[in-house]
From TrEMBL:
GO terms for biological process: regulatory ncRNA-mediated gene silencing; RNA methylation. The keyword Nucleotidyltransferase does not apply. Residues 289-381 form the Methyltransferase type domain. This is Small RNA 2'-O-methyltransferase. It catalyses: small RNA 3'-end nucleotide + S-adenosyl-L-methionine = small RNA 3'-end 2'-O-methylnucleotide + S-adenosyl-L-homocysteine + H(+). GO terms for molecular function: metal ion binding; RNA binding; small RNA 2'-O-methyltransferase activity. CDD domains: AdoMet_MTases. Keywords: Magnesium, Metal-binding, Methyltransferase, RNA-binding, RNA-mediated gene silencing, S-adenosyl-L-methionine, Transferase. Its cofactor is Mg(2+). InterPro entries: 3'-RNA_MeTfrase_Hen1_bac (IPR024026), Hen1 (IPR026610), Hen1_N (IPR024740), Hen1_N_sf (IPR038546), Methyltransf_12 (IPR013217), SAM-dependent_MTases_sf (IPR029063). Coiled coil: none annotated. Belongs to the methyltransferase superfamily. HEN1 family. Residues 1-240 form the Hen1 N-terminal domain.
Length: 465
């Protein structure tokens, strides 16, 4: 199978720098299923084409796998060596891994520059209707050309096959093109050559960050990529819905961002983070997980304190994690300091073993964004399964809303809030959580206190019995 990538962006031969493969020579790489070869049929200042050719060893793919006692000829004689499939995605990640990750030391500006790119796949199996090519590529901005091949040219009456030579064109960064190919090639084939588990779900959400949540065919892409495993694709779709909601909030006009405007005059965000940080310090925690870390404001403050030796931030929005990574400036920090922090893309409503083993968890202005069924799921994820020794949790105090004259009566501080609790409602909820899961609870107000309305933010401190 063959993948070719071309550009006319001058000087076109710089494509070799982006791919980290020299145009002047043939390069070969050993893979678990055969060999990959990279070569350039053309490399000039005007036009450059790089080719990735896979030489699949069908025998090697079967060797070592459990098989029936009877000989299965289909294990050795099939279309895997000749059509683009999940094998091509593996080759892209292993041979073009640096380009896929959007890194290039020699041409750093070119990495983030959209350039005219053409990719041709020979051949691509399209299981389903031919319109799938357009429905998957065109929403991403590609012009698509496809040539369908007959089953046998000598016997036209046999009809058409499901194999196509496909060409896509667009002006994009090389990393975007490779990412789209990495995710979508196995989707067309609707089959994978290896076991699909939780790690594949994480790969899909990571590689699909920034585009998959808004794709009109995200459900079909998710189902096919995860081999129709219901438990995985349902979880993936739920997380994509959360990410799409976060992206919509990012696009809100300034007039809709009431919460930020209301709290700015009080410097409430700074007071809130200061109170959370003080609570985490006093707990003696050395490892902290920030659930719903957003753009990393609290993570940055935790990183400056040497008490915290292991810091993890989790968020469902890929865009927020990208901003957090920039805010933390990990690439400019000493290696030992940068190694203390890790960012995870994940949902807060599904059990995740990565959340376990921490001294403390911070949940800052998160729960009010969850619908009641999701809040119930989050309670179990945090207090039953993750079970940190300490939990520091904040949420708005609904009673204080009357103190803001610009906030209409009966409205929440933020358009995405699903609820805002009074002090009594919050205390009842927190105490029930403590009773159910074995935590002692105490409460602290954050911000200026009104005799009748209380403080704008309420904080609960959970400590495991």
């Amino acid at each position: 199978m063959l993948l070719s990538i071309s550009t006319t962006h001058p000087p076109a031969a710089d494509l070799g720098y982006l791919l980290h493969k020299r145009p002047g020579r043939l390069q070969s790489f050993d893979l678990s299923f055969g060999k990959a070869h990279v070569f350039y049929p053309e490399a000039s200042a005007e036009t450059c084409t790089a080719c990735l050719l896979l030489d699949v060893d069908s025998v090697e793919m079967v060797r070592g796998k459990r098989r029936d006692a009877s000989f299965g000829i289909g294990q050795y004689v099939n279309d895997r060596p000749y059509c683009a499939s999940s094998l091509m995605s593996v080759a892209i990640s292993q041979v073009f891994g640096t380009a896929l990750g959007g890194r290039c030391k020699d041409r750093p500006k070119l990495v983030s520059t959209p350039i005219p790119l053409t990719a041709r796949i020979d051949v691509l199996p399209v299981r389903g209707d031919a319109g799938l090519l357009a429905r998957l590529f065109e929403p991403l901005g590609y012009e698509v050309e496809a040539v369908r091949h007959p089953l046998d040219e000598q016997f036209p009456e046999w009809g058409e096959s499901s194999y196509y030579s496909v060409t896509i064109r667009a002006t994009k960064t090389l990393a975007e093109l490779l990412t789209h190919l990495y995710v979508l090639i196995p989707v067309f084939d609707n089959e994978k050559h290896y076991f699909v588990g939780e790690d594949e779900l994480e790969k899909l959400l990571f590689k699909g960050g920034g585009w998959l949540a808004a794709h009109p065919e995200k459900e079909q892409i998710t189902r096919r990529y995860l081999s129709h495993r219901a438990s995985l694709y349902r979880q993936a779709l739920a997380r994509l819905v959360d990410e799409e909601r976060e992206a919509a909030l990012d696009d809100e006009p300034p007039g809709d961002r009431r919460e930020e405007t209301l709290e700015k005059a009080l410097s409430l965000n700074e007071q809130r983070h200061g109170a959370v940080l003080a609570a985490l310090r006093s707990s003696g925690a050395k490892s902290v997980i920030d659930l719903g870390c957003g753009e990393g404001r609290l993570l940055r403050e935790l990183l400056e304190d040497r008490q915290f030796e292991r810091i993890v931030g989790v968020d469902v929005a890929s865009r927020a994690l990208e901003i957090a990574e920039r805010r933390l400036k990990l690439d400019r920090r000493p290696e030992r300091q940068a190694e203390r922090v890790k960012l995870l893309h994940g949902s807060l409503i599904y059990r995740d073993k990565r959340f376990e083993g921490f001294d403390a968890a911070a949940v800052v202005e998160v729960i009010e964004h969850l619908d009641p069924p999701r809040l119930s799921a989050f309670e179990r994820v945090l207090f039953e399964f993750a079970r940190p020794q300490n939990v520091v949790l904040t949420t708005p105090n609904q009673e204080y809303n009357v103190m803001w004259e610009t906030l209409p009566a009966g409205q929440f501080r933020h358009g995405d809030h699903r609820f805002e609790w009074t002090r009594q409602q919050f205390q009842d909820w927190a105490q029930e959580i403590g009773r159910r899961y074995g935590y002692a609870v105490r409460f602290i107000g954050i911000g200026p206190e009104d005799p009748a309305a209380g403080t704008p933010t309420q904080m609960s401190l959970f400590q495991r019995d």
